[in-house]
Amino acid sequence: MTERTLVLLKPDAVKRRLIGRIISRLEDKGLKVVALKFMQMTKDQAENHYSVHRSKPFFKDLVTYITSGPIVAMVLEGPKAIEVVRILAGSTDGSKAQPGTIRGDFSMGIEKNIIHASDSPEAYSHEMPIFFNESEIVEWSYGDEIIY
Length: 148
What we know:
Strand content: 15-25%
Radius of gyration: 15 Å
EC number: 2.7.4.6
Number of strands: 4
Binding site for ATP: 10, 58, 86, 92, 103, 113
Shape: globular
CATH topology: Alpha-Beta Plaits
Catalytic activity: a 2'-deoxyribonucleoside 5'-diphosphate + ATP = a 2'-deoxyribonucleoside 5'-triphosphate + ADP; a ribonucleoside 5'-diphosphate + ATP = a ribonucleoside 5'-triphosphate + ADP
CATH superfamily: Nucleoside diphosphate kinase-like domain
Helix content: 25-40%
InterPro entries: NDK-like_dom (IPR034907), NDK-like_dom_sf (IPR036850), Nucleoside_diP_kinase (IPR001564), Nucleoside_diP_kinase_AS (IPR023005)
CATH architecture: 2-Layer Sandwich
CATH class: Alpha Beta
Structural class: alpha+beta
GO molecular function, one term: nucleoside diphosphate kinase activity
């Protein structure tokens, strides 16, 4: 089943010049970029995005970190996109993520962990409108569809 997922490349990914390498990994897997934005997340956007963590002790630090520099927001589309991106991203704690995953290769910790990916269709439905209007999602085809 084709589905969509929201992916954020966090400030550490941008500062470390990993944008192209990470997007290449996602596209190489067969995921299609249908929306892409380089932006500075506002405090309101961050608090909304991480609202499920509002009562947790790390919430304030999370908001401060994600707003500390520019991010890349994107919507990816493909079969089982949510599950596929979560597998490619690796464990939330980069020090425990498997080599070959994005976090396993580029992250050493849990706070600065390079990438965010929606963890469910419900999360995508909450997160996507924080960063994109429906009109910014581009419906397009490769022409000759690539089969993976």
